[in-house]
Design goal:
Largest sheet: 6 strands, mixed, barrel
Number of domains: 2
Helix content: 10-25%
Strand order of the largest sheet: 1-3-2-6-5-4
Number of helices: 5
Shape: elongated
Mean pLDDT: 86
Order of helices and strands: EHEEHEEEEHEEEEEEHH
CATH architecture of the largest domain: Beta Complex
CATH superfamily of the largest domain: Ribosomal protein L25, C-terminal domain
CATH class of the largest domain: Mainly Beta
Strand content: 35-45%
Amino acid sequence: MSDSITLLVEPRDTLGKGVKRLRKTGIVPAVIHDHGKDSIHIQAEYQALVKVFHQAGRHHPVELTVGGKKYTALIRSASFDPRLGTVTHVVFNAVSANQKVDAEIPVVARYAEGNDASPAERAGLIVLSQLEEVEVKALPKDLPDQLYYDAEKLVEVGDHVTVADLDVPAGVVVETDAAHALATVFEPSALAAANDEAGGDAEEAAPAAEPAEGESPATQPAADTAE
């Protein structure tokens, strides 16, 4: 895991419809859920929060300081303005340093030195990615930023890599099915023919990732009901 990510936030008294006024002044409302305790309503300066949001995603712990107290938390979800795409609300889940947590970790191809594509792609074949994230369990300090697979294994049509091929560091348990495909090699002409038959949706019809539990930062879940 990379260096710690920190964010200074303030306690928030403004709830409900009043949060609209906060947003107009460049403040984002947020909330911390803490192991069944009362939710902690907080707020943060927009630019600072967005920077942390992009750094941490849903897999990197964030060190929050609010009212002199510190919390280690993961971003559970975020809401966005549908027109502007700006962050309008963030939900954090407090985690314990000595308790394993579930997180979604991005999957990344690793190429041979000096290359930016797999052998199959260098030969003119097509590699379709079938899973972008996997579900893992680990202590917060052990959560990796990314998990890698060796793309040099993708050489001929039909070659594929699965979750079992991921390079997983010590202390991390991958909970996604080990047999789930990460990427598969296809012949361009065969894929084009399938695409024509599917009315242009062949790539979308390729085996897709199982939907992960919870919301993704890229989605727009409903904000915390109490804001």
